What does this fold into?
Amino acid sequence: MPNDPGSAGPVAVDIWNWSLDQSLADVVDAHTLLSGDEQGRAQRFLKDVDRRRYIVGRTGLRRILATYLGIEPRAVRFGYNNWGKPELDLADRSRLHFNLSHSAGEAMLAVSAHTEVGIDIEEIRPLEEDIASHFFSGSECAALAALSGGERLVAFYRCWTRKEAFVKAHGAGLSVPLDSFDVSLEAVEGQHLLERLDRDVGRLADWALLNLDVVDGFCGALAVSAAGRDVKIHYRSRSAWSANMASMM
It folds into this structure.
């Protein structure tokens, strides 16, 4: 279990990563773990690959959270805040915070005790339109324009994932204007990749924004409401939650 933020140590965040492209047999078995609402949502996908990936993503989420809560995956209940951010129901909300992201065939999940988190992963693909001018701040657009070729493309995805992770951690979704804060576009480490934040959105010192280790061809970022504390990331393997689930059966 990630640590309690009431302690003096760093804020601990567990990061889970798994493939959404699993065998058909695994998908059929996974489908039985979903709620009726989730099963209905799965059926609305037009493409089989999108339907399978949704099922594997949601069941992976349920299985991992179940290991923390000590319950069956089917018993995990979700709610949503006023801006649509998923959260655990009232009985479990105080015990755990989480955020899920997926892109192409990859899923990543951040889990922390009592600490708001946001995560984003994106596959690096060529851009067909000028997205940056619509969503990035002036300083971010200027930094991007100073780059060229493949360097600019990767920097775009660094910026996008970092901004998306912050918005998700903040909890107010896209009601937070994306030009109300600046993130670094540089390929640097550390937890201070959030460089500017409008006062009406929050205090810059309260947030940590970090890179994530992701598979080749992707970018990933994590935002944490850390209240000035250091953030310690623990990368967890799928085998760990599979073993925990087997012991619960």
